[in-house]
Amino acid sequence: MPSRRNLLITGGTLLPRFAIAQADQRPSITVAVQNISTSGTLEPMREQSNVGFRVMPSFAECLIEMDWTRTQRPRPGLATEWRRIDHRTVELTLRDGVRFHDGTLLSAEDVAFSFSAARFGGTAADARGLFVGTAQQAASKVPPPEASAISRSAFPAFERIEVRDARTVRFINGAPDVTLESRLTRTSGSIFSRAGFAAASSWLEWARMPIGSGPYRIARFRPNQDLLLEAHDAYWGGRPPLKSIRFIEVPDVAARVNALRAGDADFACDMPPDQIGEIERAPRLAVQGGRINNIRLTIFDKHHPVLANPLVRRAMTHAIDRQAIVDALWAGRTAVPKGLQHEFYGEMFQADWSAPRFDLAEARRLLREAGYKGEAIPYQLLNNYYTNQTPGAQVLVEGWRQAGLNVQIEMKENWGQILGRFPGRGISDNSNTAGFGDPVSSMATYAPGGQTWESGQWENDEAKAAMQVLASSVEPAARRTAFRRMLEICEREDPAYTVLHQNATFTALRKGLPWRASQSFAMDFSPRNWGA
Amino acid sequence: MLRFLVLRLARALLTIALVVSFAFVVLRLSGDPALLIMSVDAPPEAVAAFRRAWGLDEPLWRQYLSYFGAIASGDLGRSMRDGRDAIVLVGERIPATLALTVPALLIKLGLGIPAGIHAALHRNSWSDRLVMLLAVAGFTVPSFVLGLLLVLVFAVQLGWLPSGGQDSWRHAVLPIITLGVGGAAVLARFTRSAMLEVLGQSYIRTASAKGVPWAQVVRNHALPNAAIPTVTIIGFMVGSLIAGAVVVESVFSWPGVGRLLVVAVANRDLAVVQCILLLVAATMVSANLVVDLLYGALDPRLRRGGSR
Fold first, then answer.
1. pLDDT at residue A265 above 60?
2. What torsion do the CA atoms of A323, A328, A329, A330 make, to the nearest 10 degrees?
3. SS3 of residue A374 by DSSP
4. Closest in B41, B63, B250 to A252, CB measured
5. Which residues of B touch A124 (CB under 8 A)?
6. What percent of chain A stands above pLDDT 90?
């Protein structure tokens, strides 16, 4: 016969569970997206695309978070506080009571694991494949070489994690870096369960379903199909407001809108601006979104015979009616930025800087000075990889034509045909995401290791020197001066690019859903952004 | 017969080798898988590491020899994007595609052939004109337009069926109809033409003049002779069961082989593309082989080694 004590214990254990099950009236939602992950994994050290960034904050968290929805500033994440020990070292205090999706509690060892060779790769094994399957590679726990390269890029001078005690870790860099805290806010700084990695049979298996501590756990991921996230009720930030979130891949815009209208989806992402009016006319639908931390650019290949003369490039920067693009193609829902920078750069933001003014007379004067005789300038263009890319290109070419420039559009199918080294490479489109609140995040592209530099489109020794100061100096004044100099070189004197407009993303959703779009690609379904 | 089969097999293998080589050259010359899979937002160092890891920095001829050698030894390679064996990835998607294409084929056969026969037997009647009007509409409307139209009517307006996905049998209804309607229209046109040609032959007139009942003339003389061109078309339809739903799978977000092919081509995921091409080529070749054998069954002259 059970004792009264046993009955009480049993009842005490069962009742709350029953109560939770009874009370679980939380909604489940479906989000239609163009793509869930370009790499087929959800490990930030491999998945670097904007689309991957959209889903990651739901299941993975960093020591320091970036508040992309409201303040655009860092806030405590898995670390409750942090302090500088010296220019190379940040000490962080870990949050108590954080439980991973596998039930284990966050410890300093998990942080050490997240920055260890298990994820960073270290000396990666030679994994040459030549498309040929080898069982040991597929079953290996060694991260692929690209993951190692991404980790080196995300934390270029990272030395080690020092575990001080169960709740304190030190992030130690090999060189002074004032952006260490900011770098930790990026998805590459996500903390994962060490036990979860140990339990996985291979790196690939783990990378598909990494075990983090976010408000939702990965229940199922089928690349090119869907991603099912379920509420992680032990989430430290409160009970998640949604029972489950299902991201479904619907590549076609019209099909995404239809899914929303038919009630098969609650959200439809990546809506082009010309669809917004139509969607908003539907009584049950709404559109959210706007400017994000990404700026659309035109890139110049300074090794093209005509573009080698910086005066020609400068003329091009003055023959762009940026406001017309914003008004005509974006219905005024975005803006022309003050150069390649964002206000959330704080004291590094150069408020008196601006994009080159639209001035056809100045453009013509510069072309006369350059001795330009109407030689063709090729413009390698992808068909709407970016929203409004092709119509935007037509506006650009018309502006350049008015200034006397002969720009010829060449349609291309993929990025390899844009960034590959081939004769006749001229102008191309690109965008630049500021991953954290410092100009290092955006200007690194125009220095050794950056895409524009490494693809051989543009180099400049003075810019390289200025970038070194920006990246390694600890003096705010010296860094401000270096950033200013970078802007002067890259946007005025020897243009590497010219800004067009701030990028914007729009999400269509069922009217009345208590959710707020962020000012980045990320979608936040945590308790702080649903019903808050 | 054996010589015939051996020759057909050799020709099929040559066709497959050419298809694989052509796809390799086109895919490798027209895009960089590293940049596409890692995304343009990845650090250049990571893209370069990916390229090295998969041997994409090797000379093209060496990549080709390596790849072709692997195929010859039965290794179809691994997906650069997914990391798993290409054959496993493709194999996972085949049931989903067959779930659309097999019922769609039945619709094509069940609607197209009777409609074509009826139209031919009632030439120039209102029902013939109606059948042909629908048939022309059926195969001139692109499948993505028809698909979106069906979604607008049955999912958005009426709310009877889901707009896309693969969660239940209801999700398959609209894609099956989209696939089936176009094929049925093609079959109706071909069957009608073949029947009209046969019905104009002298042996049909002779049979009728001898007093054979019309139904018997049609069943015993017209249909078997009209079947040969129709069987050829059906052969193509059977051959495209695996990858014949590329557009429809994309419109309805149906995770089949067609959708996988689109993604693999977009990412230049060579092993997956090649695996699908091999599968499609093998299916097409097998279907054509069966069609050739059926010719013999349908036409006694071919059985005896004569020519049609």
1. yes
2. 70
3. coil
4. B250
5. 49
6. 77
The C-alpha atoms of residue A89 and residue A175 are separated, in whole angstroms, by 9
DSSP, res A16: H
CB atoms within 10 A of CB B294: 17
Q: What's residue A139's pLDDT?
A: 67
Distances (CA, A) of B60 to A462, B57, B273: 38, 8, 17
Q: What is the identity of the amino acid at A80?
A: T
Distance CA B111, CA B139 (A): 14
Which positions ≥6 away from A456 have C-beta within 8 Å?
A: A301, A303, A421
Closest CA to A186 of A63, A336, A325: A63
Continuous segment of H or E residues that includes residue A512: none
Size of interface A-B (CB pairs under 8 A): 198
When scoring B26, B54, B254 by the number of chain A Cβ atoms within 10 A, the one with the most, hence best to mutate, is: B54
Count the Cβ atoms, other than its own, within 10 Å of residue A309. Answer: 18
The answer to whether the Cβ–Cβ distance between A38 and B37 falls below 8 Å is yes
In the numeric block, which tokens belong to residue A291? 């400017």
Structural domains of chain A ordered from first start: 36-212 (3.90.76.10), 294-503 (3.10.105.10)
Q: Which of A131, A226, A284 to mutate to test the interface with B (most CBs of B within 10 A)?
A: A131
CA distance B15 to B10: 9
ipTM of predicted assembly, 2 dp: 0.80
In A38-117, at which residue ranges do the beta strands (DSSP E only) sit?
A: 61-62, 64-66, 74-76, 79-86, 89-94
- Provide the CA B76 distance to its chain's centre, in angstroms: 22
Burial grade of A60 (CB within 10 A; 0-12, 13-18, 19 or more): buried
Contact B148 A258 (CB under 8 A): yes
At B99, list the tokens.
């779930």
Domains recognised in chain B with CATH numbers: 86-305 (1.10.3720.10)
- Of A259, A220, A268, the closest CA to residue A33 belongs to A268
Chain A's closest residue to B87, CA to CA, is A133
Picking from A50, A133, A154, the nearest residue to B41 by CB comes out as: A50
Residue A370 one-letter amino acid: A
Q: How far is B231 from chain A (nearest CA, A)?
A: 35
**What percentage of chain A exceeds 70 in pLDDT?**
92
What does the alpha-carbon distance between residue B44 and residue B35 come to, in Å, rounded to a whole number?
9
pLDDT value for B18: 86
Question: What is the spatial distance between Cα A321 and Cα A356, in angstroms, rounded to a whole number?
Answer: 10
pLDDT of A148 higher than 70: yes
Contact present, A187 and A53 (Cβ < 8 Å): yes
pLDDT tens readout for residues A419-458:
888 889 999 999 999 989 999 999 999 999 899 999 999 9
Pair of tokens at residue A86: 């010296």
Contact A128 B156 (CB under 8 A): no
- Mean pLDDT for the stretch of residues A41-49: 89
| Any A CB within 8 A of B170 CB | no
Q: Is B166 in a helix, a strand, or coil?
A: coil
pLDDT confidence bin for B293, thresholds 50/70/90: confident
